Amino acid sequence: MRHGKYPLIITFLVPPLLLYGVFVVSPYLQAFQISTTDWLGYSADANFVGLDNFVRLWRDDYVWNAVKNNAILLALLPVLTIALGLFFATMLNMGGRGGRAGVTGVRGTAAYRLVYFFPQVLSVVIIAVVWQQVYHPNAGLINAALKPLGIDGPSWLGDPRTAFWCVLAVMVWANVGFYVVLFGAAMQAIPRDIYEAVLLDGASRLVTLRRITIPLLWDTVQVAWIYLAIAALDGFILVQLMTNGGPNFSSDVIGLRMYNTAFASETKFGYASAIGVVMFFLTLSVAVLALRASRRERIEFS
Amino acid sequence: MNSTRRDILRRGVVAGVMATPAAGLLSSCAMGGGDDSGDDTASRGEKTAENPFGVKADAPLDVVIFNGGYGEEYAKAHEAMYSEKYPNAKITHSATQEISKTLQPRFVDGSPPDVVNNSGAGQIDPGGLVSQGALADLGELLDAPSLDIPGKKVRDTLLPGVVDVGSYDGKFLVLNISYTAYGIWYSTKLFADRGWAYPKTWDDHIALCRTIKAAGIAPWTYAGKHPRYMSWPVISTAIKLGGLDVAKNIDNLEPNAWKSDAMKTSADAWHQIVKDQFILPGTPGLDHVQSQTEWCRGKAALISCGSWIENEQKAVTPAGFDMAIAPTPSLGASDKLPFEAIRGTAGEPFIVPAKAKNVAGGLEYFRTVLSMRGAKDFTQKVSALSAVSGAADGVALPPGLTSVVKALDASGTSGFNWVYNNYYRKLERELVDAACGEFFSGRIGPTEFLDLCQKGADMIAQDSSLKKYKRA
Question: Which Pfam families does its entry note (chain A) (predicted)?
């Protein structure tokens, strides 16, 4: 048995490592290299320019504007998504009104669970297209609903005061279903008798959530936090499709800045790589910080 | 025994992990490329009157077509015509919607195709290609005899502006094979039903807007999410007032070109459609297709667009809508250009990469495209005008395109164009675009609008990493 072990490990380990090396690690390394050049992307000529791209980036107002938007996303997307996710998951798993023994969800839990998960099944591109129509200023769902109330709705994606928030709302909408399922699954693992005990002690649902559920779910919440923080630093697809960063750069994000610099309005691959490198370190630091900040003593139940 | 083997193995795995990225770097380095000089004299045959570029009869030709609004059938027809003359040349045809992403690696490693239709949203920034010396000089093509128009050089068969718009610092590098007019579109049926006439002067235009609004229709709408569409009428109005130098100064990034008197007068004038709320409410939230659809549904009367609008709106245009193009209204009697003057320019760019294996074949392919036969076939197949003069004669065209032909005829030699959007893509696509969005949604006035455009132009002018071009 032992003799066959290493060939087996090698057979399973080398191909993925090789693929990972070629398609993940090496592009990363190359991005670092390219970020120190003035490469324009369509010839083999590139001059080494040291840290010029980073100096330029430091002075680039448009990049800072995009960073600011990502910072807002970072502050709001995880909080909103996790809060909504926890709320819905709680309602689905233990929100049922008493009367009967035991802890149950609200009526129609199965149907809700299905509906919440819908956005997760759709591709991001479809979500963007659908919501673009929902936000249509004249024929869209929202403004059509406001009209009978005598309200002329804003032009949503066409107004710098609302465009960014509209995209944020879609990001939350698109993500929340997954976390409802994730938190729901984790809640199933919490022993029922704990809940029955606190119910007998007369704890309200809010107290139960705050004192029992969240502490016991903390590991899952932590994972959710990191995922969402990383998603908040991206946001590229939705923004590109729904607003393309506009109006007047009000919904711009770093990923879109990078894309436009390399592929759309310019071909500055060197500069775009520098933006990518900055994004890489931002994401890395955010992930590490999120891990650190949310580290708590683990509560175990047996 | 066991431990040694494990050690060896561990070392092996570590070495493997270390070596993999290195191998990846070597084999797939994005920047590594062939060093061939791009000298194609070796690949050329003897030059004769029949064969002015010295095409080798058996040299293969690699053609990449943008598969967009025009499809790819027209290109296949051109390729078939090329094959008639060079039956031994193997033609590789491919079509994609992502020109930039598909072809970038081939440009980098020095094996680009021979003919590229560099068009669409995934177009490679032409300024970027030019500044990297990636394009072959097409000058030879202009001086070659036309394939089937006797006694004329290719240069003399083209509509005005075709050479200009493809030239960078005097070198003709990009061939645009179609011809587009930019103007203001309206439904002749709607106007006839209501007894409205398209206004020739600015005052008439404002008066008409009042009438239209009173009739319960929005006078204007525009591509709210691509507000640069509205920069076209603003600049056109300014050029008609102040003459061709207005455009030339903008193209050459002259200081304060955007704040010239003509631009100021024009921006002031256009501000009125914002102030008087002549624009369909909610327009800033619409993209180009959504706004054009509102226009087709009769919710708005006027819209700024190029002659591709008829094709783009084919599916939603009601029968009998009869769209037509018109020039921007004249500001007054002191206008340097007549009312009929319209912005006409060649579109649908084609290039031959400098490092193409068969540059001569690429040039000959272009000569085929620009032959009367090739041009007529193109016009018929895609319902668009060709860059070749007279190619639409006798071809049945849809109403919108018919009006474009008429407008271009009427405009004649007073037609105009600008090219800063080709030289500095970012200036139009991002900076002027954002400024137009603010201006036409009423958040800023005309002075701030031009300041914002000028700020963008100054930013481009000061960017040392961008190559600058001068327009003749």
Answer: BPD_transp_1
